[in-house]
Amino acid sequence: MYAFSILRPLQSAITERGDKVAWFLEDPKRVGRYLRPHERQLKSVTEVKSWNPDAVFVPGNLVPDFFPGIKVELFHGFNARKRPDNQGHFRIRNFFDLYCTQGPDTTIPFQKLETKYGFFEVIETGWPKMDPLFWNSTLPLRTRAQKPVILLTSTFTPQLSAAPTLFDSVRRLTQKGTWKWLVHFHPKMDPKIVSAFKSIQGQDLEFVETDDLIPLLLAADIMVSDTSSIVSEFLLQIKPVVTYRNRMPGPHLIDIQHPGELEQAIQYGLTKPLHLISEIVKYVNHIHPYRDGCSSLRVLSAADSLIARGRKHLRPKPLNLWRRARMRKRLGYYRL
Question: pLDDT digit string (tens) for 106-117?
Answer without folding.
Answer: 999 999 999 999
